Batch of 4 targets.
Target 1
Amino acid sequence: PRIPRHIHNPPGPPQNPKNRMTPVIGILLELLMPSSHRRYAAWTPDRFRSWAAQIGPNTEGLIVAVLASRRHPEQGFRTCLGILKLYRGVDPSLAEAVSARALEIGALNCKSVAALLARKPAAAREGAPSTLFDHANLRGPGYYH
């Protein structure tokens, strides 16, 4: 004789024992995680976007580009944190100009942004595109058209 299902299992879909433990395992993993890692567990891409948006739209665009350039957004968290740390004591207009330039040339790491911030603060403040050099023998783009 066959035993009815409702005697062994409660009504509803069959329960997988692994699925019942999922919330408990998540809590345990968080408790067993080192304290230095628990801080990073709360970071999300939206959190970095909101931090960057407080500086300006170009900075937000740079942070979005950094996160999008990585296979997994979590791989760009440290880079984003480094960029935002670089901008901590900087005038927002300068940070915006540097972010715009970094997006323009595709500088999506902290070292490149630091170099832009250190080398061209005057050009970044003016917002003028920087040329490599100006010489009388250079024809320019209008010559060929």
Note: The mean pLDDT is 79.
Target 2
Amino acid sequence: EVESLQLGDPPPRVRYASPVSGTITDRHVVIGDDVEPNRHLFEVVDLSEVLAIGRVFEGQIGRVTVGQTVRVHVPSYPEEAFEGIVDRMGGALDPRSRSLPVFVRIANPDRKLRLNMRATLSLVVERSDLALAVPKETVLAQPGATSTLRFPLTLPAKIVPGRHELRVQAGHGVETFGLSRRRIEPGPNRADEPSSPTFIYEPASATVQVVNVNVPAGLHIGYIGFSDDPVPRLLAGLGITVTMLDERALAQVPLEIYDAVVVSNRMYDALADLGEQTPRLLDYVQAGGVLVVEHQGRRWDPAKFAPFPGAKSGNPRVTDETAAVRLLAPEHPVLSFPNRIGDQDWKGWVQERGLYFWESWSEEYTPLVETADPGEEPQQGALLYARHGQGAYIYCGLALFRQVRAGVPGGVRLYVNLLSQGRALKKNSSTTDEDR
């Protein structure tokens, strides 16, 4: 053939062998074109095995490994799932999306998968006891519209205590969406910040904190707090019945129906009438109830609002949330019923140990813990307990409200203990009667 070309008598066709077997996916020449020696004529691809490129977000990278199984869905075959493995992972994150490319190798013996097909990749991870598949649908009428869907969540009986992350995905056809959008407002007239809002996209997820906590059956408390306080809702999740008490209810409701009444943080500053209701609260204690008073502001005076003398000026506090805590009475019911408090319960606290501690108190009070910021004198006014008549009065300067909101296990366990002291009194009373 070469000789014929040189002699000026070209054959009608010239056959070239491709260096690889496969399918022609692109052609760069037509009949009649002039062909130069280095011209790229065809693209031939072996489709018996294909490579899909997906992206994982920064917070998910630790769950992806080379060799991991991946399920692949494409719109052309909606009822069929293909299977591949992670071949390799990229070396750098995309700075805008904070995502990393992942390359997935997929066997394609039937040649169903073609170049440039859109695919949904689902990484197969170790099964979680919290896995949910609850089909729900909603209609978004226009771009930017929102919709709220609620899902029931039942935890397995043998779930391990700790923090569990729930990732959420929405689907439309074969496409899935798993990002949440967080709006960042511009700073106040700073040249180095954008003048319009920016948005951060991150994996859509929720956290479930599983706490090993004993809660007496049928526990019912009255709660004096702000209407948007999340603590009552969180306590309800533990099976505790919580009744919110405003000024009117506090003046009229028979308090003896509650195992404990809680005056949440700073409520003496927020409710002008609360001081006037203090005698009724102390009568409730004297008749056998339990009053738990969380930290109150500078103007709150123990000498006026507590059953026995005490003093609190300024804001004695411990700001180091990791500060050492010593139990002064480990066997006291507050520290042992229904949950025994130990060293582990002081780990993982957030922001601080506590604030607005008492500085002095009469002998009727029993201090239960001692703590201090590093290098400072120990303080014992963070958690005080006093019997008053048939009941008990508890002042708690420990920042348990923060720990309950954050799901810190030790804070939740100790808070439940405070609410359960009415049951502890009844338990001790029954034991004493039996001894008699």
Note: The chain has a mean pLDDT of 87.
Target 3
Amino acid sequence: MPNSFRPDKNLLSDYECKILAVFSERKSAEEIVGLLNVNIDTANLLEGLAKELSQSVNQSISQSVNQEVELTPRQGEILGLIGKGMTNKEIAVFLHISIKTVDNHRRQIMERLNVQNFASLILVAVRFGLISLDE
């Protein structure tokens, strides 16, 4: 199972990488102001969203803590490509499979990781070490 996928810097802008840092590293409002060059109200909103998302992800992780996360090699490959910022269509073209097949794999991955949305999928995958946001 692949476990060290890295985002393609050509797919994510520097600003998008900074936004990911806000959510994955739980930055404070003051850090967000400096990092994203936004006003304090926006920073407080982002900090609150990051906390809520983190709680949701932690709940998903705690529910899965007694289960070992097992993905098929293909699911691991698709999760890595998702982590690189590829769309379902791009993944389908890259892997020479149908978009519906990619959708099915993504749904199964989300079920196995016990997550309900894309942001939680990425955060849980990072915390489980299934993908990496590092270069």
Note: Helices lie at 14-24, 29-36, 40-64, 73-83, 88-95, 99-113, 118-127.
Target 4
Amino acid sequence: MTRSVLRTVVVTGVAALVLAGCGTPEAGAAATVGGRRISVADVQSATSDVQTLYGQNQPVSQRAVLYLLAAAPYIQEVATRRGAGTSPDEARRIFTQKDPKLTPSDAAVTVLQANGSLGKLDQLGPTATQEALSEVTKELAHDHLTVSPRYGTFDPQRGTLLPDQPNWLPTTATPSPTPSQ
């Protein structure tokens, strides 16, 4: 075998191995929950749209947006049962009231819809809000919310996404002894 043929075989084999991992349901997903896949693109477009709405003085985190995208169906279901749901049209109106030329992504509408419903639930009082959030958290845990490490981890005890704490630097309890000179 010549070097160029061998190089082609090796490169092709490596490419096949790399591409074999691309078919998983989580590829390109920021999170999965209950059979739904939330794409990184949806998180990014929703964050950008909501940031445009709120302005640069009120930062919008991708982690918060991802949580609302993951929890939105559960929030809507709980809020609707309690007469506190927000419709997609209400969420879109928030954008058009700010600027009639704004055309939010579907993901951004979902985020504002969930956020609006949480706001309405909050008006029902702290007990109702806590019960609703507890129910949403239980559903997210039941449906196995799995988050890409890029966005953190889901904490079912707190009902939130916590920042990822990568443990890539080794830690020691005591410093290593230094050799005597």
Note: Residues 137 and 157 are 8 Å apart (CA to CA).
